[in-house]
Structures are given as structure tokens and as C-alpha cells.
Amino acid sequence: MFIGSINQHLREILKEMAVGWQGLPVYVGCSGNFTVERVLSGSGISSLHGNDVSLYSCAVGLHLGGGEIPISIKREDMAWLGEYLQGGVEKISALLLCSAYFQFLDRGTPYHKRMERHYRENFARLHAATTERVKKAIEGVQLQKFYPMDVMDYVRDVVPPTGEVQDSFHIKNTASSLTGILDVFTAHRTDLQEGFMQDDPGDAKKEVPASTVFGTDRLVERYAVTIVKALKKAQESGQIQEKNLWEFVFKLSEQYLTTV
Residue 6: which of 42, 32, 45 has the closest Cα? Predict the structure, then answer.
């Protein structure tokens, strides 16, 4: 089961864009894990419409829209799951938990058998814990309506072609809309600078944009040619690997800091 999501930086961009969407109906396609809806709901957008086709997303979406998806168990040996499919949040939690549990069903290895037994014996406890997490995640989020259908059909048949939705995305506003998105993006390009340029050595696995270090992602051609020659020479001598070219700059920086 695929559950879509978006990272924290895009969430911040959505929050800022939501300022211009106040009072407008917002139609979200491919809702996935409803991260977009949760962000927009927390930003004051009250008229939200969702869409998706997966079983899990449909269960969440219909619940947020005041409905419920009917689910029945076909396998007799799994009939015990029926008691966990009563109620909206409980049903969502069961589906979420089963997405992990079912990976180990009907598999012959000792490992898979142990994992299957673990989920079966602890399902009640795991379900209760998952239910609490789901309640917290969707708290305060409501949809005007959820549409369990293909996103192309949703855009063609559901999203209004006229009125407020069209006006807010009219072609004459396309340039200004793109400019607004770029402005927000630019404002967040270097937001990692605070907090990592300290005296501590930093996280060896965490990555930051090069523009955070240099203030730009562009180089003067003369500098670029010289740097490329130096990197190639360092690779040929075995000092660095092709997949880690930044290590060369790092080593030079370390040498400078220890000698100056």
C-alpha cells in the first residue's frame, strides 16, 4: 500500500501559499496520507475536497468527509479482524496496521513466520496504539467531500470549471502565481543556514543545499574550470571518489582551519 507524503519544506511553502486561498474551495487530487489537507486545514482553509483510489486513502477520506467505506473479510482464517473494522478511526488504524502485518502472511521462512505470529498475538495492543496516533494525526481536519475516483475523472467531472476556482487560477494570474511560488521557494532555500553553521562538527549524514554555504548555486566559469581540473586530479590520485566530490573541498577546508 502506497502512502504519499511531502517533506517539511514543502509544507512550509503550502502554509504561506494558503494565505492567498482563504475563503476559497480547495480541491486536492491524489490525497494519499492527507498531508496537504492537514497543512491547509491548520492554515485556516475550511472548504477542502479530497480524492484518491487506494483502500487506505478512501477509508481516511470518507471518514473525514463524514462517511464510511464498507470493508468485509473474505478469508475465513482472518475473520477475527472483523472486530477491528468497526468505526471510522478504528477501521483506518486496522488498515494501516495490516499494511505492515500482511507482508508476512503465507511466507515460508522462519523469519516471516515469527513476524506473522508477533502481529497476530499483539494485534490488539498494536491496534490500540495505532488508533491513538491516527486520532492525533487527523484531529481537527474535515473535508467538504471526498471523491473515491481516478484523479483525471475527478479533475474533469468534479473540480468546477467556472467560478471561484477558475478565477483563482485564471491564465492572466499564472505569471504572478508562479512568481509567488518562486519567492516563497527562494525565501526557504537558505533557511538551513541557521542552526548548522555553528562550532560543532555537524551531522555527517544530513545534507544541506550548496547555496546555503556559498550563497548561490552559480560559479564563475574560470573558477569552475579550475575546480573541475583539481577534482579530476584528486580522483585520479585516489584522494576522493567520484560519488563524493565535495570531500575534496572539505579536506582543503580542514587543512586550512588547522594550519591558519
Answer: 32
Q: How many angstroms separate the Cα of 21 from the Cα of each of 41, 140, 213?
A: 11, 19, 34
Quickly list DSSP for 49-95. Answer: EEEE-SHHHHHHHHHHTT---------GGGGGGGGGSSSHHHHHHHH
Q: Which three cell numbers stand for residue 14?
A: 503550502
Mean pLDDT of the chain: 81
Q: Which residues contact 138 (CB under 8 A, 6 or more apart)?
A: 34, 38, 60, 63, 64, 89
Q: Cα–chain-centroid distance for residue 7?
A: 5
Q: Do the bridges between strand 145-148 and strand 48-52 make them parallel or antiparallel, or are there none, so unpaired?
A: parallel
Question: Residue 148: pLDDT above 50?
Answer: yes
114-124 pLDDT, tens digit each: 999 999 999 99
Percent of the chain with pLDDT over 70: 76
d(CA 37, CA 46): 10
Measured CA to CA in angstroms, residue 137 lies from 34, 75, 143, 176 at distances of: 10, 31, 15, 34
Question: What's the pLDDT at 53?
Answer: 95
Distance, CA of 205 to CA of 186 (rounded, Å): 24
pLDDT value at residue 212: 66
CA atoms within 13 A on the CB side of 175: 1
Give the residue carrying C-alpha cell 468546477: 160
Residue whose C-alpha cell is 511553502: 13
Residue of higher predicted confidence among 149 and 196? 149
Find the helix packing angle between 55-64 and 110-138, rounded to 10°. 20
